[in-house]
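<context>
A single protein, sequence plus fold
<entry> Chain with its tokenised backbone below
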Amino acid sequence: MAMQIGLDELLGMLVSRVEDMAVDNENQKSRFNVMFRMLYRKGLFNSDDALEAIREENRILLELGMIKSMPDEKTLKAAADNLMLWIKGDTNEIKRSIEDLQKRIKEAEEKQNKPRIETAPAGVLNELDRMGGKNGKKLIL
């Protein structure tokens, strides 16, 4: 006999599972941050090591076909710098970085929301006039 479950029960279970996964993800991030801070403070790695590890990770992803191309050196360096900010716990720089990111996102959104006025080539406008230009009325003024 098939078990029936309501849509609201199913959605409730799914939301609960997603919330559990989010909490687990945050716990894992905290654990990794703590471990990396301990290793960094003991001098077991530095910024160059982080850059090399990020470069290696992207090489592996590229060879597995999970990314289409290797990020440029500037992008790899930015990723390593951001990682080191978290490891070092530089909260002022992290806040500044977040503010810069929010500013860039806002600028990009504003560019997308600006209406664009496009004009058609003269030939298309003349054709439209011919199509609707009976009795001296023009589609295009």
